[in-house]
Amino acid sequence: MTEETLRKLKILAESAKYDVSCSSSGTVRRGRKGDGVGNTVGGVGICHSFADDGRCISLLKVMLTNVCMYDCAYCINRRSNDIPRATLSVTELVGITMEFYRRNYIEGLFLSSGVVRNPDYTMERLVRVAQDLRTIHRFNGYIHLKSIPGASQELVNLAGRFADRMSVNIEIPDEGSLKYLAPEKDFKSVYEPMGYIRQGVLENKEDRKRLRHVPRFVPAGQSTQMIVGASPERDRDILRLSSALYATPTMRRVYYSGYVPVNTYDERLPMLKQPPLVRENRLYQADWLMRFYHFTADEIAGDSHPDLELEIDPKLSWALRHPEAFPVDVNRADYEMILRIPGVGVKSATLIVNARRFRRLTSDHLRKIGVVMKRARYFITCGELESACVADVSPEYVRRQLTEPPRKAPKGDNSLQMTLDFGE
User: Fold this and answer.
1) Under 8 Å between Cβ of 204 and 183
2) Same domain, 277 and 148
3) Is 31 in the same domain as 61?
4) Which terminus of the chain has a smaller tally of CB atoms within 10 A, N or C?
C-alpha cells in the first residue's frame, strides 16, 4: 500500500465512523476447496462489536469517498464543511479489502459513500466494488453495502446479487424535520430503495422454491439508522416508525445514533454538550422489547407518556405504570406474561415454562434459572415469596427501592461491623 492510499484510507475510515448500522446476521457463504477466498459461516454478527457467540468481529468500515453533493446540517461530510477530502478508486478499495482479509485483519467489508454527481453514479461505483470482489477475486466474506437514496431499481437489484446485507439510512424520523435539516433529501428517495430491496428479497424467495440453483439476494436482509436528538421528535414517534419498519418482512435491524454535535455553527441544530447516550440506550432497550418481548410501540411510549424514562428501563417503566397486571404467578402464567416481568429475560422465561412442568418453582429455583430477583420479587408470586408486591404497596415505593443507591456507612463508623465476644 502506498503512502497516498494509506492517507486516503485514514480519512475515509474516520468519515465512516458515525454510521452505526454495520452489523449483520443470518447469512452463510461457505468457501469450497479451490473455489473462492474465505467464508462467512454460521450467520453471526459482523462489525466492530461482539457476535452472538461472544467473539469480537472486525470488518473494514470505510467510505468510497467523503466528497458529497448534499449539505445536510447534521453530517460531518456536508459539502460546506472544510475537512480533508479523499476518494478511493474501485481498484484501490478492492485491493485493500483483499490484502486486509488475507492478513486476517478483517472478516468483511462495510462500504458507504458520499453522493458524487448523482445517486446512480455513486451507486454504480459501490456495485462495482462488490462485483469485482465476488466475481474476480472470488471473495466469500461478508459485504454490507449502503444503498444510495434515489438510486435506480436496476442498480439496487444488481447490488443485491453481491451483498449480504444492504441498508438505507432514514436519518431523521420525521419528513418535515428531514426537509428542514437536509433540504435536498426526502422520504421518497429513502423508501424507494428500501422497497426495491424488499421486492428483490421476496422475489428471490419465490424463485428458490421453484428452481434448484438460484443465487441468493441480500440474504441478511436490510437495516437502517435514525439520528436521535438532532430534531424534536419524541420517543413515541421514533418507536412507531421502527414498529412499522419491523412489520415489513426484510427489515432486520433499526439502529439509533445519538446526535453528535459535529457542526455546532449551524443554528438549525440543537446546542448539546454531549450526545444523548442514555436516551439512545433506552431506545435500544425499547426496540428489544418490540422485537423479542411482544410489546407494542404504544405500550412502551404512547400518547400519555411520549418519552422514555431515562432513570429506569422501558420494561420496568411499563410494569410500574400497570400495577394491576401484577403479581404474576410464575407457576401458572403464560409465556407472554412471564416475559413482561422485570428481571426476566427471554431465556429465563423459556426455562421457567419448561421447568414448571416437573415441579412447583420457588424463588431459589428462579435464582438458579437466572431471574434477577432484586427486581422480579415485587412483580411475582411463587408460594413462599415474602416480598410485598407492587400492587400491595405502591409503584413509587418500588421505584425508590430499585433506583436509590445503597447507603454507605460513614468513615470511622464501626457500628455495622460484626463483633465477636471471646470472653476473658
Assistant:
1) no
2) yes
3) yes
4) C
Is it the case that residue 387 has pLDDT exceeding 70?
no
Q: Is residue 27 part of a domain?
A: yes
Whether the Cβ atoms of residue 270 and residue 254 lie closer than 8 Å to each other: no
Residues 151, 167: Cα–Cα separation, whole Å? 12
* Total residue count of the chain as it appears in this document: 424
Assess if residue 120 is contained within a domain. yes
What digits encode the pLDDT tens for the residues 304-338? 999 999 999 999 999 999 999 999 999 999 999 99
Which CATH number belongs to the domain containing residue 33 in this structure?
Answer: 3.20.20.70
**pLDDT tens, residue by residue, 243-270:** 999 999 999 999 999 998 888 889 999 9
Distance CA 199, CA 180 (A): 30
Range of the domain at 99: 3-300
Residue with the three cell numbers 428483490: 200
> Residue 301: CB partners within 8 Å, gap ≥ 6?
234, 235, 236, 239, 286, 307, 308, 314
Which are the contacts of 354, defined by CB distance < 8 A and separation ≥ 6?
Answer: none
Strand partners, 35: 32
**SS3 string of the chain?**
CCHHHHHHHHHHHHHCCCCCCCCCCCCCECCECCECECCECCCCCCCCEECCCCCEECCEEEECECCCCCCCCCCCCCCCCCCCCCECCHHHHHHHHHHHHHCCCCCEEEEECCCCCCHHHHHHHHHHHHHHHHHHCCECCEEEEECCCCCCHHHHHHHHCCCCEEECCCECCCHHHHHHHCCCCCHHHHHHHHHHHHHHHHHHHHHHHHCCCCCCCCCCCEEEEEEECCCCCCHHHHHHHHHHHHCCCCEEEEEEEECCCCCCCCCCCCCCCCCCHHHHHHHHHHHHHHHHCCCCHHHHCCCCCCCCCCCCCHHHHHHHHCHHHCCEECCCCCHHHHHCCCCCCHHHHHHHHHHCCCCCCCHHHHHHHCCCHHHHCCCEECCCCCCCCCCCCCHHHHHHHHHCCCCCCCCCCCCCCCCCCCCC
Q: Which three cell numbers stand for residue 210?
A: 421453484
Quick one: 113 and 255 in the same domain? yes
